[in-house]
Fold this sequence. Notes:
Elements: E1 6-11, H1 16-25, E2 31-36, H2 46-49, E3 74-77, H3 84-94, E4 99-102, H4 112-119, H5 126-131, E5 133-134, H6 137-145, E6 149-151, H7 155-169, E7 179-184, H8 199-202, E8 207-208, H9 216-228, E9 235-240, E10 247-254, H10 261-271, E11 278-280, E12 298-304, E13 310-317, H11 321-335
Parallel strand pairs: 1-2, 1-3, 3-4, 4-6, 5-6, 7-9, 11-12
Antiparallel strand pairs: 7-10, 8-9, 10-13, 12-13
Amino acid sequence: MADSGARIGVLGASGYTGSEAVRLLLRHPKIVIRTLTGDRHAGQPMEKVFPQFAGLGLPTLVKLEEVDAGALDLIFCALPHGTTQTVIKKLAVSAPKLKIVDISADFRINDPDIYEKWYGHAHQAVELQKEAVYGLTEIYRDKIKTARLVANPGCFTTTSIIAIVPLLEAGAIDPDSIVIDSKTGMTGAGRAAREEMLFSEVSEGLHAYGVGHHRHMSELDQEFSLAAKRPVVATFTPHLAPMNRGIYATHYVKLAGKTTAEQLHKLLIDFYKDEPFVNVLDFGAVPQSRHVRGTNFVQVGVVADRVAGKAIVIATLDNLVKGASGQAVQNMNLMLGFPETEGLMQLALFP
């Protein structure tokens, strides 16, 4: 681990996204990890909670109230939804120069009323919400560079925004006919022990959940509507797949006017031609989740539907990396003036 550089803290380091942030930060040459929190494991070395970190000299886990925010340059908040607002509100007062990347959902929704509708309680930091920048790096890069607080997007939404937003901005698809069938790995449910997440409960099967009312729908509504410059409500159904990592999203779209599936593909190629982490495959090629496992890369494929005037856009990413902590590190790089790809260019472990 580096002993000099930007001083970084990870709140909630004992969870999946927190530990993934630590894994990625350990490869970063321009930062030093100063603080790790994990209330249930406070006082324990990180390697006791995650043995893969043995011998790396990481800080001992501490409680949230023990964090000296003024001694840090940037903090990642990998805390549960609903609790992060009050934590970040306190941090913003005690250390006004501190930069924050929030990996929870607490600052992703621009409208506090919509947040309350989807999350069941009033927003506890409305003034901070006004300055939060939605952290989809490929879309909001310039705003992220100067932000104090970045709201890292959800894993489902990152996958679908990357696939669909350029097409909506170009007016190439019908905004009222978007259908999204998305699969996620088990780590998307977090690390807390729950009966329905036992191996015998989820292996050798597949099931939908949050049908008709998944919280990520609010993010999709927000970002799709901004891209289309009119209200957009997509049909979205998530499914739990018996794998550890990954999001695999299949998007069914209706082409606008005389647009062809080949033209959709060309739009995506042009939009992402300079993006280091988004790979648009050859027309007709289908991405596979195993090819992005453990990486910050996204693969996108476009296929013509057999039905005239329709196309299928498929995107896949690792829910813990580009869908969470990898994108958070990408945002950190922008916020601290580092090269955007620093510490993030590892390739997939395959097979």
